[in-house]
Amino acid sequence: MTTAPVFIHPITSCMVPHGEVARFHACVSGMPKPEISWFHNRQPVRPTKNVVFHFDEVTNTATLIIVDAFSEHAGQYTCRAANNAGEATRTSSITSWTDNIKPSFTKKLKFQSVLEGEAVELKCKLVACPPPTILWFHNNRSIPKERRRRICSDSKMHMHTTSLVIDSIKEKDSGSYKVMAINTEGSAESTASLLVSLREEQSANYLGFVKRSAKAHESIDTMAEQRKDRKIRVELSLICFFFVFVCFKQFHLSIVKLTG
Question: Transmembrane residues, as ranges (predicted)?
Fold first, then answer.
C-alpha cells in the first residue's frame, strides 16, 4: 500500500541571534519513505560544515540544522517530501540577529606589496547592527577624501563591506593601514601593512641578481679550469714517473749483462 507524503505538524519559524544555531523540524508520513529536500528562498540547500541534514527513522522527523546563523541564512525555508505516490511541501522562515551586534570582522585586511604606479585595493568585511561608522587611517592619520584615494562601502542587512582604492600608488603610500568600525554596541579594527617598491629599486635588484649570477658562473668556470689544470699536472707526473722507471729498468738490465 502506498500513500502520498503528509506533514503531521507545520514547520515552526524561528528567530535567532547572530552566530546561534537555527533548527527546522518537519514531521512527515508516507509510504514508501518520502525523499526529503530543503530549499532556501526557492533555491536547493546543500549540506556543508555549517548546514546539516538529519532524519529520525523512529519519529519520521526531518531536521535542517544551521550551525551558525548569519544574515545570508535569513529568509524562507521550504521542506519538500516526495515518493512515487505524490509530494507535499511546507514553508517556514528564519530571522537572524534579533539583537544588536558589536562590529566583528569576518575578513580582515591583508599585507600587500605593489610596484610604484600600480593601483591597489585594501578590502575587508564585517558584521554589525546597527550599521557602523567606518573610518580609515594611514599611519594613524585619518584618510581624507580625494580623487586618488577612494573609500567605498556597501551593506546588505547586517553584512558590511568596506574598501580603500588607491590609484597610481606612490612611495609615500607605504605604511600601516587601519580600518575602524564603530556602532552603539562597541568597536572593532583591522590593521595591515602596504609596501610600495620603486621601479628603480626593482631594476637595481634585478641587475644585482644578474651580476651575482654572472659572478657565480665565473667562479664555477674558474674552479673547473683549476681542476682541469690539476688533472693535467697529475697526468704529467705519472708519465714522468713511468719514463724514469723504464729507463732505470733498462739500465739495470745492462749492468746485469755486463757483470754476467
Answer: 236-255
Residue 218 in any domain: the answer is no
Cα 251 to the center of its chain, rounded Å = 85
Beta-carbon neighbour count of residue 61 at 10 Å?
Answer: 15
By C-alpha distance, which of 185, 178, 191, 179 is closest to 158?
A: 185
d(CA 148, CA 145): 9
The answer to whether 168 touches 148, Cβ cutoff 8 Å, is yes
Residue 138 to residue 153: CA distance in whole angstroms: 18
Q: What's the one-letter identity of residue 182?
A: I
> How many angstroms from the chain centroid is the CA of residue 129?
27
Give the residue, 92 or 253, on which the prediction is more confident: 92
Please indicate, yes or no, if residue 71 is contained in any of the structural domains. yes
Q: Which residues contact 238 (CB under 8 A, 6 or more apart)?
A: none
Q: 79 - beta bridge partners?
A: 38, 90
Residues 106 and 46 in one domain: no
* Phi-psi label, residue 76: left if phi above 0, alpha if psi -120 to 50, beta otherwise: beta
| pLDDT 10s digits, 67-105 | 988 777 888 999 999 999 999 998 988 765 546 788 999
Residue 191 near residue 110, CB atoms below 8 Å? no
Whichever domain contains 118, its CATH number is 2.60.40.10
Mean predicted lDDT score pLDDT of the chain:
83
Q: Model confidence over 100-150: pLDDT tens digits?
A: 788 999 999 999 999 999 999 999 999 888 889 999 999 999 998 788 899
Domain limits at 139? 101-199
